[in-house]
Amino acid sequence: MKVSNLTIRTSAGLGLVLMAGCSLNPRGAFNDVEDTVGRASGKRVSWIRSGEEASAARGAVQALLSRPLSADSAAQIALLNNRDLQARFEEIGISYADYIQAGLPRNPSITGHIDFSREGPATLYSVAEDIVSLLLLPARKKVAAAQLETTKKRVASEVLGLVAETKTAFYNLQARQQLLSRLKMIVATNESSADLAKRMHDAGNLPDVELADQQATYSQSRVDIAQTEAQIRSDRERLNRLMGVWGSDTRWTLGDSLPPIPGEISTARLEQIAVAQRLDLAMARANVDAIGRNLALRSSTRFVPVRIDLGLEFEKEPGSAQRRGPSVDIELPIFDFGQAAIARLEAQWRQAVNELQALAVEARSEVREARDLVAANRELARYYREVLLPQRIQVVNTMQLQYNAMQRTPTDLLLAKERELNTERGYIDAWRDYWIARAELEMALKGGRPGGAASGSLRSRTPGARPTSNSPANEGGNTQQNNGQQ
């Protein structure tokens, strides 16, 4: 019994040492996500796991809500206050727990047997530990570490996706509010025109059809306002959901005008930048690395005994001396030597390779498309602002003077105003679309698709190999020229 007790104490001590070396706090893993998001977006995130952290986040949100919102401040509120994002952060804790579990040895097994015979009870005790599990501990931990890395990159990509979605919702709302301000001015003008038309009609100077046309135009402008106001309420609620606010926190304000369009941005080497920085591609590489490590581990141990339990036995029979000795329990891989598991991992690896290839092609295409949309909407907004809208305003002013001089009919003036309104709608839409395209370009360069293919690197002859130089997933790969830029 002394030998058995010593063995138990030794095994327990080993377990305590291993547990002491493995921190159960996933904060370090989250710090990697925080750093990635900070570099990519300039925003900070907070994984709220205590009352103090909740109070700090709440204070920061209240400070941002107390001022008129911008696209950046709305995105920052979402990162601090969106509960669905907090739920995604818990995936890091789950994956980190799996990583810790992979680094722990299996618990030793203790077997006891008492035989009640006529001479007295005979006792048999044994303590055993799985040696194969201990030998494979470092390899299993590396596999779990690769899986944790995949989780961190996926969560960081989802964070950047929330930033882009919040900015898009903000720009939609701000553009609609800007249009509403213009519509209210038009309603006031149309109301005055309708009153004037009524007086002219009563004096016999305006036909019935033109009076009806003026009144219908005024009524339509009021309908446009009602529809725009309803859409604004819907847009505000969408932004409320993304920012995670409710109650009195939904009384925030924002500026009525979209931010000015800056000068041209550099679009050189965008594809290479995206391939080097996109988190969905990094997640794919980490995923294939995890599959490769798992496959290498399973392939190298396919003929190793599945389980080897080494231990000590202690036996005491009535009237005889104590007997002690080692014990061995081996599970041999005779029928199941991992052939099905290896085939499954190989198929998953090939699947990951094809998914990465497709993802890399899509990433490059998304960057080119977003780049072209930014340039096109900038040019379109500039043309509206500098050419078309001034022309429409000049036409309306000239038409107003001619109308006052009784040289134009009210219908001519209303038609000119309608065309000016349509032009201003187009200008605001192009202005809004520019900023939405900017947000999409940022996402295409850094985040990628949060729910995209969770695939890995290119497959070669060695598990965990990096992409080849001519792969679309390689940042140094050949890039097709597009409009003179890479």
Question: Gist?
Answer:
This protein has 486 residues and is α+β, with helices and mostly antiparallel strands.
Please provide a written account of the structure.
The chain is an alpha+beta fold. The chain has twelve helices and four strands. The chain has a single domain (2-447), classed as Outer membrane efflux proteins (OEP) (Up-down Bundle), CATH 1.20.1600.10. Helix content is 66%, strand content 8%. A four-stranded antiparallel β-sheet has the order 1-2-3-4. It is elongated, with a radius of gyration of 35 Å.
Number of helices: 12
Biggest β-sheet: strands ordered side by side in the sheet: 1-2-3-4
List how many beta strands DSSP finds.
Answer: 4
Determine the CATH topology: Outer membrane efflux proteins (OEP)
Question: Over all CA atoms, what is the radius of gyration?
Answer: 35 Å
N-C termini distance:
75 Å
Helix content: 55-70%
Q: What's the shape?
A: elongated
Structural category: alpha+beta
Biggest sheet character: 4 strands, antiparallel
Shape-level CATH architecture? Up-down Bundle
CATH superfamily: Outer membrane efflux proteins (OEP)
Q: What share of the residues does DSSP label as strand, in percent?
A: 5-15%
Count of spatially separate domains: 1
Walk me through the topology:
Blueprint: H1 2-20, H2 27-41, H3 51-65, H4 71-81, H5 83-102, E1 109-117, E2 120-130, H6 131-135, H7 137-202, H8 208-243, H9 270-277, H10 279-300, E3 307-316, E4 323-331, H11 339-404, H12 410-447
Antiparallel strand pairs: 1-2, 2-3, 3-4
